[in-house]
Design brief:
It contains ten helices and 21 strands. By secondary structure, it is of the alpha/beta class. 28% of the residues lie in helices and 25% in strands. The strands form six sheets. It has a six-stranded mixed beta sheet. A six-stranded mixed beta sheet has the order 7-8-9-12-14-13, covered by helices on one side. Strands 17-18-19 form a three-stranded parallel beta sheet. The two termini are 38 Å apart. Helix 1 packs parallel to helix 2.
Length: 384
């Protein structure tokens, strides 16, 4: 059984105010060519198909066009689950009708999720789709108060699912979750506030391969056969050194997984350039002209007139300028930490302290986290 594992397309994404639909279409054309060349038995898209619950029209059109080509032209069935950025109801609309055409979509959480079964020369392979679900939603659906974390909720769903799969069958899990110890990036929306989103990789031990979504770096997660494919493109500057991938997986008769990671070539790369202003402006050997998406980190300590306008002559797609060593009134403005790597709670705590001169109390911090969780839940349109 050969299948392709991809995730986190984030169609409709904005990157520092720039629409990436054309960039995504460019890479998805390569993806379609890869499918044509490799002739997989199935395709997995492990969540975050869209970047937000109500995607722009052009993102919906791009997904429709891509899926149509994969299903109708290449005749490859597709399994797709909702991620934390998606609206489960919108993604899952018409799923029963679409399944007859080879598009298996799991949006909203249901009590008795059935596996999707494909056959090869060795027999059946059971694909179990675990759509993204808040622990509160799992608790409500199954009326179990003890499921108060992502790990307990996922463990329960896995145990429930195994009852629908023969014990010795080859099994593949599809999930959108955060495996403890994996590498994060700043472009990922946290699944929860307070660290309860961690799930142990051992939860997926019963499966011969686990196709994960959520984290944007292509990586293994606790075991060789538990994998994040990574996002379709680089969606933040701290992903500049990431290697984005598409996982081509082959299961043998015993369920052993052979994994090949294939990289697609973006229309424009994402890069961080560091140096002094005059060097970047004039030194074409060390700083060649580029159309890539660029973040410039200037080492100069003095103010510079029209710095963005001048650097745009070198970098057409200059999206960000950082001045960590800029002096103001003769004082060096030292960075107080990388705000991009701070959680929402840490950012608010820092802001609160700057405004009031005092740190948040435990009670205030708890109220903030509860309200933030409610906001994230409303964005995902979870009904609990």
């Amino acid at each position: 059984m050969r299948f392709i594992h991809t995730s986190d397309w984030h169609l409709g994404r904005l990157f520092h105010g720039k629409h990436l639909t054309d960039d995504q279409a460019y890479v998805l054309e390569q993806f379609q060519a890869l499918v044509k060349d490799t002739k997989p038995d199935a395709i997995i898209i492990a969540g975050d198909i869209y970047d937000r619950s109500v995607p722009p029209t052009e993102a919906v059109e791009l997904l429709d066009d891509t899926l149509a080509k994969l299903l109708l032209d290449e005749k490859v069935p597709i399994m797709m689950i909702a991620g934390n950025h998606d609206s489960p109801e919108r993604v899952g609309f018409g799923s029963k009708l679409l399944a007859r055409q080879g598009l298996h979509v799991v949006g909203t959480l249901e009590k008795n999720v059935q596996p999707i079964v494909f056959q090869d020369t060795f027999g059946d392979v059971y694909f179990m789709p675990f759509t993204y679900a808040e622990p509160a939603l799992v608790r409500h659906l199954f009326q179990l108060d003890k499921l108060d974390s992502h790990e307990l909720a996922m463990q329960f769903l896995v145990e429930q699912s195994l009852a629908n799969i023969p014990a010795k069958a080859r099994k593949v899990a599809i999930a959108h979750t955060f495996i403890a110890g994996s590498m994060e990036s700043e472009s990922e929306r946290p699944l929860s506030v307070g660290g309860t989103s961690n799930v142990s990789s051992s939860v997926f031990a019963p499966f011969h391969y686990t196709a994960l979504g959520h984290l944007h770096n292509s990586q293994r997660a606790g075991a060789e056969h538990i994998r994040y494919s990574g996002s379709l493109l680089k969606y933040s500057f701290d992903e500049a050194n990431h290697k984005k991938g598409i996982n081509i997986v082959e299961l043998d008769a015993a369920g052993n997984a052979k994994i090949e990671v294939v990289s697609l070539t973006p229309k424009y790369d994402v890069r961080v350039v560091e140096g002094h202003f005059n060097d970047i402006l004039k030194n074409r050997i060390d700083y060649p002209l580029s159309d890539d998406y660029i973040s410039v980190k200037l080492l100069d300590t003095m103010p510079i007139l029209d710095v963005h306008g001048q650097l745009e002559k070198v970098y057409k797609n200059l999206l960000q300028i950082e001045r960590p060593y800029l002096t103001v009134a003769g004082k060096l403005q030292k960075p107080s930490g990388d705000h991009r790597r701070m959680s929402e709670t840490e950012l608010f705590d820092s802001f609160f302290e700057q405004m009031t001169g005092e740190k948040l109390t435990e009670v205030q911090s708890k109220v903030f986290r509860e309200n933030l969780d409610e906001l994230f839940q409303a964005e995902r349109e979870a009904k609990v």
